[in-house]
Design brief:
By secondary structure, the protein is mainly alpha-helical. Helix content is 69%, strand content 0%. It has 16 helices and no strands.
């Protein structure tokens, strides 16, 4: 199970989303919570703690979530996973999808609690039901590997696709793998290629590596392209994908010195379309 989103992803990726959403919609937040979110974005942790504590004590789920994230990471407070869990539970009981996701992640990793995939799948499912792409991606991974749920490739493909269409790069990669192998979904190399490319363009190294490999051989409707194979292998190699490093060295023999120089420069300057999610 890839499951590599870590506690930082609760508090960096989803926290940035929460802060942005909170600031954009301060009219529906308490004044304390809105002020706390602004302070959290500015890394003014003393003010953030004071305001979010006030909001959390009044039952504001957004404040409970954010204060829980501060405790989970030790932002301005001593790291305290039991306190974080209590706050996440309080927010989740109000239907806060990010808190549900946080609980699923913590139970799946066993951070401060015994590892429990049944609890993880329960909370991920609650968030997935609300359309949370990260939770849908994690549910897909659980179904793919049979952790906390019965192994079910069709369910994995379903949830990967939902999350992939929301732009979650790891879900795009997972869905592409199932499409390429025909697991839980009709085999479709052309569609797999499309999703590998989507994830690669977001900067996901395993997707870049696989895209490079597919350009070597070509797939249905996609001709072999040594230049693209070399480019994506070189981009992936910059992220320490060893198979990509070996492929890039092998592909140099099929290209001119001028092509190699230009493609190396392009790979060096390449930037992802979006941050990896």
């Amino acid at each position: 199970m890839y499951g590599s989103t870590i506690i930082q992803s609760i508090t960096s990726n989803s926290l940035r989303l929460l802060v942005a959403a909170g600031i954009a919609s301060t009219a529906i937040l308490s004044a304390a919570t809105a002020d706390g979110l602004r302070a959290l974005e500015k890394k003014d942790y003393a003010t953030a703690y004071r305001e979010l504590r006030a909001g959390a004590d009044r039952g504001d789920a957004a404040a409970q979530l954010s204060l829980g994230q501060m405790y989970a990471r030790g932002l301005g407070v001593e790291r305290d996973m039991p306190a974080a869990m209590e706050l996440f539970h309080r927010a989740a009981e109000k239907g806060n999808a990010q808190a549900e996701f946080a609980l699923g992640l913590i139970y799946s990793k066993g951070w401060g609690v015994p590892q429990d995939f049944s609890q993880a799948s329960f909370w991920y499912q609650q968030a997935a039901n609300q359309g949370d792409g990260y939770a849908q991606s994690q549910m897909a991974a659980l179904y793919e590997d049979g952790y906390g749920v019965e192994k079910d490739f069709a369910a994995a493909a379903h949830y990967y696709e939902l999350a992939a269409r929301k732009g979650v790069s790891r879900a795009q990669f997972g869905y592409a793998q199932l499409l390429e192998k025909g697991k839980g979904v009709k085999r479709d190399e052309r569609e797999a290629f499309k999703w590998y490319r989507e994830a690669a363009q977001q900067g996901l190294a395993p997707a870049q590596e696989r895209l490079g490999a597919l350009y070597v051989t070509g797939v249905a409707g996609i001709d072999p392209d040594p230049a693209q194979a070399y480019f994506w292998s070189t981009v992936a190699a910059r992220q320490k994908e060893r198979a990509a490093e070996r492929r890039a060295r092998a592909m140099e023999a099929r290209l001119s010195a001028e092509q190699v120089a230009k493609l190396k420069a392009s790979a060096r300057d390449w930037k992802p379309t979006f941050a990896v999610k």
